[in-house]
Amino acid sequence: MIDLATVERVRAYPGATDMRLGQYGLRKLVMEDEEPRPGTLYLFCSKDRRRIRILEVGDDFVWLHECRARFGRFKWPKRKGEPIERPTMLQIAKGCVAIDPLPKPKGKTSLF
Questions:
Q1: Distance from the Cα of residue 41 to its chain's centroid
Q2: Closest CA to 51 of 20, 81, 29
Q3: Which end of the chain is more exposed for a tag (fewer CB within 10 A), N or C?
Q4: How many domains does the chain divide into?
């Protein structure tokens, strides 16, 4: 889990990000805009807004966290310059909670 006490800044990348990118691919995206800074979380969202990847940069480490929403989608800006509220970003970083829930499917939900 992410230690929010050490987080100084959270940056969300608007629009859809290719979720096939791993740690190095996402760092390359960040480096197009700025040098990755320690104490910063970089958030990326998939096209269907059901998966979030969080790149956590520390002094001597880089973590890649991923979250998938089972029932719902994340509220996510579609274009650059569209704001995402800080509480929403912190909710995602704390526990990766789906912010915009969809109704649960009726009937069997288990695979077994």
A1: 9
A2: 20
A3: C
A4: 1
